[in-house]
Amino acid sequence: MRRSTNFLTKNKSVILYGLFLAIMLCLLKWLELRFIVINHAFEIYAGSIAVIFTGLGIWLALKLTKPKTILIEKEVLSEKSETFVINEKEIIRLNISKRELEVLQLMSEGLSNQEIAERLFVSLNTIKTHNARLFGKLEVKRRTQAIEIAKKLGLIPQSR
Amino acid sequence: MRRSTNFLTKNKSVILYGLFLAIMLCLLKWLELRFIVINHAFEIYAGSIAVIFTGLGIWLALKLTKPKTILIEKEVLSEKSETFVINEKEIIRLNISKRELEVLQLMSEGLSNQEIAERLFVSLNTIKTHNARLFGKLEVKRRTQAIEIAKKLGLIPQSR
DNA sequence: TTGAAAATCACCCTAAAGTATGAAGGCTGA
DNA sequence: TCAGCCTTCATACTTTAGGGTGATTTTCAA
What we know:
2 copies of one chain form a homodimer.
Chain A: H1 2-10, H2 12-35, H3 41-64, E1 69-78, H4 88-93, H5 98-108, H6 113-120, H7 124-138, H8 143-153
The structure holds a DNA duplex.
């Protein structure tokens, strides 16, 4: 009996459908009585039934077939080491200018201040000034520390 | 055929409903025969149409509703970036000694020669000697270049 | 247009890094 | 045992890096 109760409580739509069916049949009966005298009414009646019950079938199928979407989770290896993106937030946070970043980049490539100056077409003193500001912002004392921290923070790309 | 089997096994309630419907119709028929004296051929015909077209509707709905599959790609960090392995072959090829590698490591961490000397309990001059040999073996002129190349060759770990 | 930030450069000085050379002690395999 | 390498240290010197200060020009947004 528990199975039946379970069925009745859980499939409300089915019961409702049953009632609907009963009402529908009564209605059809009434219609039949109304138009049975008219000979041509039979085709219309049959057609109506066909259409209505086709619709009902579709509705039922859609209602009862709940899981229409299937989720598939796929694990993908991400090569973070390949796609390097500079950490712009850190650059902004540390208030590092474009030129300073440029100097930092060349510095990390192992260039001397003189070489950086030549590369950027400025004087050695200019590079020294940039360095001083850079070290201040990065809170370091040496260029090697600056490079280390800059790579850790993602300000400049790793050596690969 | 697999689809049909699937349908039969998974949508038990639909089948039950079908049976319920049949029983209902029989009951109605019986009631009709009992209390109404009319030609019952038409009712059977209408019921048949109803059942057939309900089935047709269900079939149509199931046929047209293809199960949507949503693919979720889940990113997983690759092991490569986590586990660093030193390139021993390169170390042997370049004939770099243990002590030199040690100095190189500390150098890459941004320590000054003086700091490295203190860390290793040796004199500043000793570190300078190690550096000179290191630069010769790595074919570089500055510590920053040494660090750059050493990281590229995998002699020392990356900054992360 | 004007003010702040960025970029440029100079000078002076100190600190650190790098070069060259020589030398001594320890470890190891032939 | 002994040659060869590693490690250590020293001295002297040159080069590069870094600190501090001040100044000018450029750029850019309010």
